[in-house]
Design goal:
Strand 1, helix 1 and strand 2 form a beta-alpha-beta unit. This protein has a single domain, classed as Response regulator (Rossmann fold), CATH 3.40.50.2300. It is an alpha/beta fold. Helix content is 40%, strand content 14%. Helix 1 crosses helix 5 and helix 2 crosses helix 5. A four-stranded parallel beta sheet has the order 2-1-3-4. The chain is globular.
């Protein structure tokens, strides 16, 4: 069997956006990809990210918040940053065949206001990430 392409989603803290992207690609891409996510730091899985993903029918509660692993980075076929900070500070990618993209999304963890306003921010980012994952799958990457 052919090796599945490895998609590595990177963000600053690996708590929201990269976790959502990992969850959606696992759910929507079925078993077409090996999917991992990590951050420049590990801030822990954000409970609001878990909640909003559950609302979308995707359980990410068993995912872990991890720091970028150089070995995984070297094996990755696709390295996708989800925030400007990670894009600017991502380590050099040793695998010259890897495709690197930047999909910038606002950080819902920085949202302020009422609980409902904050959750609306999480849902907006979640839906934008889902749309981008669907586009990725449609393009047959």
């Amino acid at each position: 069997m052919d090796k599945k392409p490895l998609v590595y989603f990177l963000c600053t803290g690996n708590s929201c956006r990269s976790q959502m992207a990992e969850g959606f690609l696992r759910a929507l891409g079925k078993d077409r990809y090996e999917v991992k996510s990590a951050g420049l730091e590990a801030h822990g899985l954000n409970p609001r990210a878990v909640q909003t993903m559950n609302e979308a029918g995707v359980d990410i509660s068993s995912q872990t918040s991890d720091v970028i692993d150089p070995e995984i980075l070297n094996r990755a076929d696709f390295v996708i940053t989800l925030c400007g900070h990670a894009d600017e500070h991502c380590p050099a990618i040793p695998n010259k065949n890897a495709v690197k993209w930047h999909w910038g999304f606002d950080d819902p963890a920085k949202a302020t206001g009422t609980e409902e306003e904050i959750m609306t921010s999480f849902r907006t980012v979640r839906d934008a990430i889902k749309s981008r994952i669907e586009q990725f799958l449609k393009e047959g990457k």
